[in-house]
Amino acid sequence: IGVTSFIDASLLYGSDEIIAHSLRTFSHGKLRRQIGPKGKSYLPNVKQATKECTVANDATVCYAAGNL
């Protein structure tokens, strides 16, 4: 076994082409985002949280990321 500097960032950037494309803006290599309180950037919310996340209702905050 060897030591590498490889970092698996698929949790954020996506592990397949469909998810990876859905997370990107295709402008200057940036990810999609939403602006929250005090101008902070957050990942975009999932539209149907009960289908994508383990939550009770769709009003619950659930962020879209590479692990969907």
From TrEMBL:
Task: Please indicate if the UniProt record lists Phosphoprotein as a keyword.
Answer: no
Q: Which GO terms describe its molecular function?
A: heme binding; peroxidase activity
GO biological process terms, semicolon-separated? response to oxidative stress
Domain of life, per UniProt, equals Eukaryota
Q: Which InterPro entries match?
A: Haem_peroxidase_animal (IPR019791), Haem_peroxidase_sf (IPR010255), Haem_peroxidase_sf_animal (IPR037120)
- One Pfam family of this chain: An_peroxidase
List localization entries: Secreted
Keywords for the protein's UniProt record, in alphabetical order: Glycoprotein, Oxidoreductase, Peroxidase, Secreted
Q: Which GO terms describe its cellular component?
A: extracellular region
Q: What is this protein called?
A: Uncharacterized protein
